[in-house]
Each structure stands twice: as structure tokens, then as C-alpha cells.
Amino acid sequence: MSGHTIDVSKTAGGIPVVVENIPDTQSVAYMIGVATGSRDETEGIYGLSHLLEHTVFRETKTMDSYQMAKEIEGAGGELNAFTGREMTAFYGITIKETADVARRIVGDIVANPLINEKSTELEKKIVLQELSMIKSEPDRYIHDLFSMVLWKGHELEQDEGGDEKLVEKMTFEDLRAYYNEKYRIPNLSVYAVGADMEETVAWAEKTLDGMSGGKRNVRTEPPMPKGKYEFVANDSDHYQVAMGFQAYGSSHPDRAAVSMLSAVLGSGTSSRLFQDVREKKALVYSIFTSVSQNSDASSLATYMSCTKENVVEAMETTSKVIGKFLSEGLEKGELDRAKRLVKGANVRAMESTDNRLYRLGVNHMLNGSTETLEQRLDRIDAVTEDDVMRVAEDILVSDRMNTVVLGKNSRKFKNYDSTKLAF
Questions:
Q1: Which candidate, 211, 223, 224, 85, places its Cα nearest to that of 143?
Q2: Which of 136, 166, 284, 324 is the most buried (most CB within 10 A)?
Q3: What is the pTM of this model?
Q4: What are the beta bridge partners of residue 229?
């Protein structure tokens, strides 16, 4: 990985430009990030950020979506975008010889979208299908439900897709007003992987520096949530369960220790939860623990899928595993195995240009980080057993645990006494 550097500059208009250099790469990637997402939406417009992200792809002042598709694919590349709770981003990846195509189209999408009635109504149909699809995929939907329960009453509970009934009523005027307010400096940032800094800055200045006059969203840090239990009925015979806690924001010094805690509990087939809940008792088909990161808070949660007869025992076994970990601590060699597992996942992910671009953009947008892979690996190596147990005792508090069960309607799960999950 030697020779990989991350350089930071600004356009004349003040837009941050962050470029990761990759020696000998044959691909190049460009992203424009906008510092607005679902947590910044107000009552009545939940889902507007996501619908706007879709709609700007439909047509710009110079091309329609079919022309974009022909040009980017003819350049050996792809276009895409995503909406998160705290940012929206548009990106293009091509081979190096056609980098100008990726820059031009991504810039055009952000700077020159038409956002007309026809495009809006077409994309509403697609977005509504997407929202329906997510609800019909329980293993995806459980993540949205858990966030809604954990952050209930706070802006972070608003999932990226939004409310179907509200999306249905949105007009192109709503989208245009939101675009004019949010898609402005100082909310814009530019990210590139495998690109030349001088060339990237020049492109950003020409394309985006005229988009001034905005202001950053004002956000409030979520309070520590109390423990809640919620059952959500759907038509699936297979049940999904989420059990988790609030953890630290993306710039917290203990974020690497939280990752190690998550790995020890539920990353990989050697983890405690996989072994105790799946291998020894065969209670679940799948089980894993992960961290979902926001700028000012995160969640550490365990997700599992199982049949109806195993739900209660799987939840109670999970609680026992957490309690045993808190009382007995780490086993010999356990932290070293977790470190190598997480480091391996990081190294493999960074062999992909689009993964590098995503991580570069999200990390910088959330906390201003320009951490290289080598620095990230060093931070993981620096975590001690005392660090892991300290954050475990701070985060894994039973009366702060939020639990969601998703599956076919059942009085048993509606009325379940969640105090049985205490540890």
C-alpha cells in the first residue's frame, strides 16, 4: 500500500477537494457530496432528499438519462448515487483514459438538473417501488426499523427512503426549492480517487464555484435512549431480530475500540454470538453484530434471523452472551483475532476503487477525516484489552438496550416481557 496519500485542497470558492492517490491504478473515480440527508428533513417532507437524488439523474440542461448511460458506459464506467442520513452523493467511475467523461457527467447532474414535472413523477414511481421492495425484504427492513426505534423522537429516526404517503404527494416545485436551498456552498465537497489534484480542483471550480449562497444544516446530538422493545408484524414466516445500543460519534477517540467490541461479539464465524447462538444451539440461520455510524452518535447492534419457535431463546441467549462477556472479559488471543479480522476486511475493501471513494467521501463528510488505510490499521493495532472492556461497560447497559422483532403477527411477541433480556 506504499505511495498511497490523501491530499486536501480547496477551490477558489471554498469547496473542499480531497484526492486519494493510488500509484499504478487504471481506474479513476469522482464524487460530489452534499451535506444534507434524511436527518435534515422537516415534518411533511420525509423522503425528499432521496427522491431528489433520483430525479436529478433524469435530465440536465445538456442530456437525458439515456445519453448519460450511453456516454458513461461507452467510457468504460458507471454512474451512481446514494442518500444517507447526513449526506447525499453522486459519483462516476471510469478507466483513466476517459476520466473527463466521469467528471463532466457527475458535474452536470449536480450543477444543471432540470427537475421538471415529468422527471419527478417518473422517479416517484420508481422510489415508491423501492420503498415497497425494502419492506418485502425483512433482512434489510429490520435495519431501518431498529434505527427508528433506537432514535425515536430524534431526527436520526428518519430513514433515507422516507414516508411513502409523503413521497407520493411531493411535487417538482418541492424538489426544486430543496435543491436551491441545500445544493449550495458550503454544503458541497468533491472527492476523487486515482485522480490528479490540480485537474480535479480546476473541474470543481469551473462546475461548482458558482453555486454559492447556502448554509449548513443545524443538527442536534441525540440524547441517550432508554431501552425499548417493539414488535412489528409483516407477512414473513421467518423472523428478524435486532438488539442494540447507542455508541459514539464518528470522531470519538474510542471508535476503533467499538469496532473491536463489535467484532469480538459478532463478526465472523468464530465470534461469540455465532458460536453460542448458531453453532452450539442452532437457534438462528444468521447472526452478526455491526456498527452504523453517524457524525454525533452510532449504533452497535446484533441482527439475527430465525424461525418463530427460536426467537425468544435466541434473544435470551444473546443477552447471556453479552452478560458473560461483561463479567469475564476477553479470552486469551481473542482481541488479536478480532484485529486481524477487521484489518483484513479493511484491506480487501480498499482494493476496490469505488469502496475507496465511498469511504473517502463519507469519512470526510461526517468528521473531516482524511485517514489513510495505513493510519486506520495503526489505530486498530493500538486498541488494548482495557480499551475494549472500558467501552463495553459504557455501551452495553441492559436498560439501554433496544430490541425489535419483525415477523408474522403473534400475541406472544407483542406481549413479550423484555426485562427477561437483562444481563
A1: 85
A2: 284
A3: 0.95
A4: 403
